Amino acid sequence: xxxxxxxxxxxxxxxxxxxxxxxxxxxxxxxxxxxxxxxxxxxxxxxxxxxxxxxxxxxxxxxxxxxxxxxxxxxxxxxxxxxxxxxxxxxxxxxxxxxxxxxxxxxxxxxxxxxxxxxxxxxxxxxxxxxxxxxxxxxxxxxxxxxxxxxxxxxxxxxxxxxxxxxxxxxxxxxxxxxxxxxxxxxxxxxxxxxxxxxxxxxxxxxxxxxxxxxxxxxxxxxxxxxxxxxxxxxxxxxxxxxxxxxxxxxxxxxxxxxxxxxxxxxxxxxxxxxxxxxxxxxxxxxxxxxxxxxxxxxxxxxxxxxxxxxxxxxxxxxxxxxxxxxxxxxxxxxxxxxxxxxxxxxxxxxxxxxxxxxxxxxxxxxxxxxxxxxxxxxxxxxxxxxxxx
Length: 390
What we know:
By secondary structure, the protein is an alpha/beta fold. It is built from 16 helices and 8 strands. It has one domain (about 5-385): TIM Barrel (Alpha-Beta Barrel), CATH 3.20.20. The protein has helices spanning about 5-25, 40-45, 50-55, 55-70, 85-90, 120-125, 130-140, 150-180, 190-200, 200-210, 215-240, 255-275, 315-320, 330-335, 340-355, 375-385; strands at about 95, 110, 190, 240-245, 280-285, 305, 325-330, 360-365. The strands form 2 sheets. Strands 3-4-5-6-7-8 form a 6-stranded parallel sheet, sandwiched between helices. Strands 1-2 form a two-stranded antiparallel ribbon. The model has no long low-confidence stretch (mean pLDDT about 90).
């Protein structure tokens, strides 16, 4: 291997060790930095969000540009095929997409509509989530899939798109590796709680929680094994021992409801994946501060808690920082509206307090906002170099 190849391989291993040490709650040479990036990367590369979503080749190119310019310790998520059918599999609700129902440079938008019925809970309990999704998809993507034998072409299309998504993701992981960047996630999708609440709509789902909590709980728990199987498959085929699960709605529950409905789901997912050697990245949208003590029941070092700026990340460090890795959480408002010095100051506070003793990965709170200032995004990388050495 030539000198340049040796240097790239050395950088790859250095970055990998840094992030994995943080996940194990150890102190690496410095605080690692890797962050969720979608629309910002597209705009920075000069293409529309529509082209980023629908053109896998452009998707890969955008990720390469972002990694080269901002040098995260890991490529966050590999490029993939984001056809509307694939979006529907991940988020089972009506979705409006850029360049289709929306202007080409908008982010996609989910809409609440109670397409799932009360009777569907029993179907999930009897048959499981995969068969439910097969029956449910025609309701949210009727232009692609029809019920019965007439829907066979649509179901074959899903198979073809799935193969395309896998091959694109693997190629993207290789792209990043050739540049010296390991990949943080081998795949990702919504939790059973989120999938059911999206299909049912938040209003009706909230009513169900009060009127039929046992039925809701049984449907969630029945859905866990199939999700875990998919997560294991994603990890195995990508070669990345980390998978993201989106926990977007569990935070809305009261502490009592959280322990009854959400905690068993989260504990089972993280436990089963941990036994298989897969780290669960819990993408925790909204305010999880009331539930931090409950999260102490998750297996130690089994997951990364990815906060979006609403949770008190400093309290999280004090409550669960000795058991689980914490990732976050430079707020969108600072990245979009603040100055470089404000970003550096906030990152320094995160590094000094949340990064103390290890077990911390610096990132934006959720994804980098589309209108973030490039110099502010670059400041996150600068901050770990300037303040993050242990």
